[in-house]
Amino acid sequence: DQQVKQNSPSLSVQEGRISILNCDYTNSMFDYFLWYKKYPAEGPTFLISISSIKDKNEDGRFTVFLNKSAKHLSLHIVPSQPGDSAVYFCAASSGGYQKVTFGTGTKLQVIP
Amino acid sequence: GAGVSQSPSNKVTEKGKDVELRCDPISGHTALYWYRQSLGQGLEFLIYFQGNSAPDKSGLPSDRFSAERTGGSVSTLTIQRTQQEDSAVYLCASSLVQRETQYFGPGTRLLVL
Q: For residue B63, what is the DSSP state?
């Protein structure tokens, strides 16, 4: 049972345009959500997070939106840069419980 | 100021052999996690340590998998009688306290022939 789903395995975007990566979850107990970025042959690195008490969190070019009623979150990258090309993982956890559940990842390619 | 390190970076073994994977977390991080990523899959949670104890072992796929952590620092993940389906990248992460951002190591690529 995949509790965190990233239905798009890959995405191509032109440099300078907006990249939108989507994530859906099924567990209504999740209250903390994270995005990680992973380059080949490296471990994932933390990008941005959002608590369920918020619906938006912004950090520079990266913004995460949370729609709790739809159990959906998205990561917006604007403007996209070639260095953003990586696999992006959505992750979620529930209050006090340490286990973090990851999605299967979306491979983003930003075309110069 | 080193990050999370893992060794070996690559391991090729024969089916049926035991393997030990090592993780050195960031100094001072009390929480340590093991994940595995099989080809084309997401990150699969295996086990979590708080200090030396493992409150959550629910992700360990079978009793062939075990992990320990000593001195609140180094952790080893042991896979006994390896099977071909154990082939994956095994990732370790640590965080300062629970629910803080996890910092990942580069992973150990395990190939079971």
A: T
Residue type, A42: E
E strand or H helix that includes residue A31? strand A30-38
- CB contact under 8 Å between B91 and A43, yes or no, is yes
Inform me whether the C-beta atom of residue A69 falls under 8 Å from chain B C-beta atoms. Answer: no
Could you tell me whether strands A19-25 and A4-5 are parallel, antiparallel, or unpaired per DSSP bridges?
antiparallel
- pLDDT tens digits, one per residue of B50-105: 889 988 788 899 999 999 999 889 999 999 999 999 999 999 999 887 667 889 99
For residue B53, the number of C-alpha atoms closer than 13 Å in the C-beta half-sphere is 1
Residues whose CB is less than 8 angstroms from the CB of residue A112 and which lie 6 or more positions away in sequence, other chains included: A15, A82
